[in-house]
Amino acid sequence: MGIFSLVTGLPGPSGFGSSSTAEQVTGGVDASNLTVIITGGASGIGAETARVFALRGAHVIIAARNMEAATDAKQLILKTTPSARVDLLELDLSSLKSVRAFSDKFLSMDLPLNILINNAGVMFCPHQLSEDGTEMQFATNHIGHFQLTNLLLEKMKSTARKTGIEGRIVNLSSVAHIYTYEDGIRFSELNEKYGYSGKKAYGQSKLANILHANELSRRLQEEGANVTVNSVHPGLIMTNLMRHTFFLMRMLKIVTYILWKNVQQGAATTCYAALHPSVKGVTGKYFVDCNEAKPSSLARDETLARRLWDFSEKLVKAKTCDRW
Ligand SMILES: NC(=O)c1ccc[n+]([C@@H]2O[C@H](COP(=O)([O-])OP(=O)(O)OC[C@H]3O[C@@H](n4cnc5c(N)ncnc54)[C@H](OP(=O)(O)O)[C@@H]3O)[C@@H](O)[C@H]2O)c1
User: Fold this and answer.
1) What percentage of residues in the chain have a pLDDT greater than 70?
2) Which of 107, 142, 181, 300 could pair with 208 as two cysteines, CB 3.0-4.6 Å apart?
């Protein structure tokens, strides 16, 4: 799958391509026995993913920091699918305290958990630290999801054991993972303002999403857990993600319009990786346009993935011990 198939929309080996929509790739899938959490499910790709999961019968938990937007997203789903099962839970991924509160609340609901879509994200922010003192894009896009996944993992494993249904985790990455700092992750200068680039910091966080998926996949395979983990690039879609570079992106879209997707197409790769039967047992892979693709060499670096895992674990431990 390259630029030719992106532009033409021609299907790849999976039978789907860049022009496939989330509804098309989930056609015929019955998700009525599945519970899914979608972070950032109140807008953009996440909202469309939530809509299509609900359409296929899944119990959808929208995890959002903006509860008003989440309520609107739920109303929109109910308009077209009145029988939809949609719950809203508050989550601010840039706050480890909020991540803990979210998982405590979810676990207290005593629901199964089959699928986790780590979708929420921010892009190209000016330099800013989270309430835990971590660079904002790394905190939101990677650390929040890293900790959320860890806190929900036992639930996913036990659901898979009890039901015999494979659990699936999907991390929303981006082709932007290739545009990062020289060594991939600025471990020793993560929070430094000096040398900070909003674009490289975004690329770094998206690289972290792939490395996280790969290392978690490796660990789960080692344990023999019936849970897979994959990462995806959804394509280029005009959403609120562009809020920090709205004008630039609008200009870019005018000259590169054939490379852009609508949100229905943008949610397709996530839905394919999370629901399609042909992805059963597939883990530690990266998908673009609903087909397996090869990410950058840094993203395939197993040593870097393990280093990021240890670093993230230590960071979370230090921040949570500090505060609570
Ligand atoms: N759009 C693209 O072209 C593109 C390309 C490659 C990858 N992606 C990835 O796709 C994913 C979805 O992006 P999108 O285009 O759908 O953008 P979007 O419309 O801005 O959606 C992102 C969602 O994440 C939420 N979010 C942001 N910070 C959060 C936080 N601290 N805690 C909880 N939720 C938070 C946003 O909520 P608020 O509304 O409250 O901010 C929003 O609902 C992102 O991971 C992005 O990196 C997108």
Assistant:
1) 98
2) 142
